[in-house]
Amino acid sequence: MSNKNENTKDENKWRQSTKLVRGGLDRSHHGELSEAIYMTQAYAYDSAEQAEQSFTGEIDHYVYSRYGNPTVSMFENRLALLEGADHCRALASGMAAVYCALASQLKAGDRVVASRALFGGCEYVINTALPKFGIKTEFVDGSDLDAWKEALSTPVDAVFIETPANPTLEIIDIAAVAELTHKAGGKLIVDNAFASPILQKPLELGADIIIYSATKHIDGQGRVLGGAILSNDKSFIEDELQPFYRNVGPSLSPFNAWVLVKSLETLELRVTRQSENALALAKFLETLPGVERVFYPGLTSHPQHDLAMKQMSGSGGTVVSFEAKGNGKQDVFKALNKLQIIDIANNLGDLKSMITHPQTTTHQRLSDDERAAMGISPSLVRLSVGIEDIEDLKEDLTRALG
Question: What local confidence, expressed as pLDDT, does residue 71 receive?
Answer without folding.
Answer: 97
